[in-house]
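Catalogue entry: protein
Contents: sequence, fold tokens
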Amino acid sequence: MRVLVALGGNAMTGPDGSATPQAQREAIATASHHLAELVAAGHEVVITHGNGPQVGNLLVKNELAASVVPPVPLDWCGAQTQGTIGFTLLDTLEAAFAARGIERRVAAIITRTLVDADDPGFTHPTKPIGRFLPRDQAQTLIDHGERWEDRGEKGWRRVVASPEPVEVLETHTLHTLLAAGYVVVTAGGGGIPVVRVADGSVHGVEAVIDKDLTAALLARAVHADVLVIATDVAHAVAGWGTPGAHDIGRVTLDDMEAYAAAGHFASGSMGPKVEAALRFVRSGGSRSIITALDQLAPAIDGHVGTVIENPERER
């Protein structure tokens, strides 16, 4: 079975949210342990991951050094974090495989994701990123071409576009590596956002792509049987924070869409994960699973997690 696993931010940082190099290495090693269990079970595994804390660190460095050196653009931040997380996953996956006697090669791809240059997000950017800053500090970055907004008492905060992913440009390379037997790490942070211009070439843009939406797109492109969105809870929950709250287990596409339409999933947390899971199944995928990182293997076996099934594929 070919499984695409989208690792959430909890797989990249310490239990307390710490993003020190040591905390990140330890968290990624733990994630690799669980991923190795899937490989040991005989599954073909493709891995994608978030990069929010890592990009956040780079943005702070941009802010502190803006009066000395030009800030690094967001597409460069994405590329840098793909490289750092990718090589750390290579090291930890190889170690996890060796501990289990698994002989599998691992590769990490610096991955670009095409977005539409006419996406409305570029005209009206709304995605807040980074820290709140006083007006005078924000002005230095505004002078470098960034867009910041006054958020009242908290201060000023940067806003950027969050366009829809259209195509993962390294998909052909990914297919080649999968055919050669590699476990592949790809499309970290949703992919480096690029647009195509009139002469057919592409170039990076200042934007943030939702990594789970890219994971859904990529899962279909590589003909994955299952999309797993690994997060910090074992199930999605309906009625969160109410007396009627309950875990959502195995569910049909129609029923999960009804939960989403009723507003059960917050836009800043579970909402994008549910939308990505729904997109994969709607587009013909067999099933999507939302579950905790340490439940990957039992979730694939059907024992835990929110499992959204495609009735046409499950017959």
Observations:
- The longest strand covers residues 127-133.
- The mean pLDDT is 92.
- DSSP finds eleven helices and 17 strands in the chain.
